[in-house]
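Intended use. Records like the one below are meant for learning the mapping from a protein sequence to its folded structure. Do not use them to infer anything beyond what is encoded.
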Amino acid sequence: MKTTGKITRGSLMTLEAYSQYRKENKPAIMAHRQLRSVRLGEHINVQFESETSIRYQIQEMLRLEKIFEEEGIEQEIEAYAPLVPDGSNWKATMLLEYPDVNERKRELARLIGVEDRLFVEVEGHARVYAIADEDMARENDEKTSAVHFVRFELDPAMCAAVKAGAGVKLGCDHTHYPAHTTIPAESLASLASDLR
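Structure written out for the chain above:
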């Protein structure tokens, strides 16, 4: 799957071409997604997106829904392309994972606002809190959603530090979900490639 810097209808594969590509390359795409997936505590999974992961997501949606008309393709691009990082940020899908339905219901009620308490901290710099759900509200007075889309905006000094090898923590300081972890070096190397 060739990255071009911008996902357009013309840069996507036809359904037939993608079907062949998928058979040969799905393990590599899954490995890329796994590399950019960081667990935070027991129940939060942060999937840092890239042009490759979003291109794959769009192609999968087109394949599953058998979308081949111009309007449908453009709608999928409009839905997912904003999740591609654009040089000064990391964008991610934040998943709250509770396999037990009753526990999930209880915890989603306790974790209202958790997406706004998610942060990254570049070694030697202040925390950067997530800007969450810019496309639509994903919580109400009773509960938060199990899926959020977040963006971390880094200043030029932070970007330079990451590219120079500084460590980065991923954390959450929500009252009911205090957690932090160091982003593994191999994952961070992939994330550093998103920065200018």
